[in-house]
Amino acid sequence: MKTAARAERGLAAAPLEVMRSGQVSSIPMRFDRRVTTEPQGFAAPAAPDGANAQRELTVFLDRDGVLVRDRPDYVKNWSEVEIVPGSLEALGRLRSAGARVLVATNQSAVGRGIVRREAVDDMHARLADMALRHGARIDGFLVCPHTPDDGCACRKPKPGLLLQAQADRGVDLSTAFMVGDQVSDALAAEAAGCTAILLADRPPATTTPWRVVPSLADAVDLILDASRSPS
Predict the structure, then answer these.
(1) Percent of the chain having pLDDT more than 70?
(2) Residue 12: inside a domain, yes or no?
(3) The one catalytic residue among 32, 62, 129, 181
(4) What is the pTM (predicted TM-score) of this model?
(5) Is 201 a catalytic residue?
(6) Among 49, 64, 181, 221, which one carries the catalytic annotation?
(7) Of 31, 59, 72, 145, which residue is 20 to 30 A from 38 by alpha carbon distance?
């Protein structure tokens, strides 16, 4: 039997259907060469000004290994996208809780000339569309297209992607979470002042402050429990 992800592979790119004020509006994705891409119509909040920084719950997610199955030869186009089982349901729970979800992903295949940036943007548009079809939502994508040798500030484990979300979207990093399956994800979260949740079968060999759980569903349990706890 085909998985839901594989059944979606043949879909042509479609505009996002977004519920706003009880109305359904078709909103095309805006793609550009900046680090961030987001659906048009979802205005990013103004840059934070001290106490005016937004206090809503923000959850950063790595892409490959968390939402999409990783591949040793890179995920190069939509035909190679396989959704991690249970990830869309976990995203739906975050949406129900009112969380803002931002995908923060290293995509060095762009810098290596293996994948075109337009192909990455196309995959992200389809992922966002698929999330909406399953009652979930991805509010934006933060992409580092550089190789490790480029020495950029945005490639995880550096915190540049998360810091850009703080500057552009008013994210309160001190209350945000970062969920990833690589140590570099947790290190980026730690450097940015976020709570790091690592998806792994066992904790790292060295002692760390990170929470370690086996799946995104378990990570969402931790996040929602923490958000309900009195500050």
Answers:
(1) 75
(2) no
(3) 62
(4) 0.77
(5) no
(6) 64
(7) 72
